[in-house]
Amino acid sequence: MVEHAKKRISENMSDPKQVVDSEGSSSDETEQLNRECFFHIGNTRYLKGTFWDGEWNIHIRQYEWSATGMLYPTKVGIVLSLVRWAEILCHLKTIEETMSEIREGKTVKMFTHLGGNIYMSVGSPYHVVDIRQWWIPDGKEDLKPTRKGIALKFKEWQSLMKCVDELAKEIPEIEQTKPCSFGTDHSNQLSALQCKNCYPNEPIF
Ligand SMILES: [Zn+2]
């Protein structure tokens, strides 16, 4: 039970204007505040929705307090489009089951592509859900993890899950967004292979 799961960042702070965005500028413009939503998921980690340039993005990120009492985003985190967030939502049951099996000491692994070489993985014996950018180095065939991502402890993942409905209320577009593979252009395998989100790597012949 995480008490602060649904608390927004502004409620945890004396002055919401102290939140500093990733560009380092203070988010004190009313317009911008109206188009953002924050949810605390434990420790100094937050789920955040931002509307920018006509698009919503979902951020899962670790923040840090500065000496002057400002909350800054760190490099630990990931940004997901609504399509990639929709992909996560499709796998919630499998993640829960995998987590239970790991708690029981079973040897299991789940590795799911969210699009654009961002993968969500859960594997024993680690009690984390990792959401991370991967890549294939030149001349190689295997995917390698990058440092761009976040490994959520099971407790943080559960807090994140408690925010899913609330996030969908803040961002009604979530309900209308389906995973990339649900698109009609993906019903035929040849056209699906053209999708750079689902198949971001050059084919190796
Ligand atoms: Zn696709």
- Percent in strands: 25-35%
What is the mean pLDDT?
86
Q: Strand sequence of the main sheet, in spatial order?
A: 1-2-3-4
| Unreliable spans | 1-30
Radius of gyration, taken over Cα atoms and rounded to an integer in Å? 18 Å
Structural features, described:
By secondary structure, the chain is α+β, with helices and mostly antiparallel strands. It is 25% helix and 33% strand. The chain is built from 6 helices and 8 strands; from the N terminus they run αββββααββββααα. It has helices at 30-34, 82-90, 92-103, 154-170, 173-176, 189-192, and strands at residues 36-42, 45-52, 55-65, 71-81, 109-115, 118-123, 128-135, 144-153. It is globular. The chain binds zinc ion. Zinc ion is lined by residues 180-181, 186, 195, 197-198.
Quick summary of this structure?
By secondary structure, the protein is an alpha+beta fold. The chain has helices at residues 30-34, 82-90, 92-103, 154-170, 173-176, 189-192; strands spanning 36-42, 45-52, 55-65, 71-81, 109-115, 118-123, 128-135, 144-153. Helices cover 25% and strands 33% of the residues.
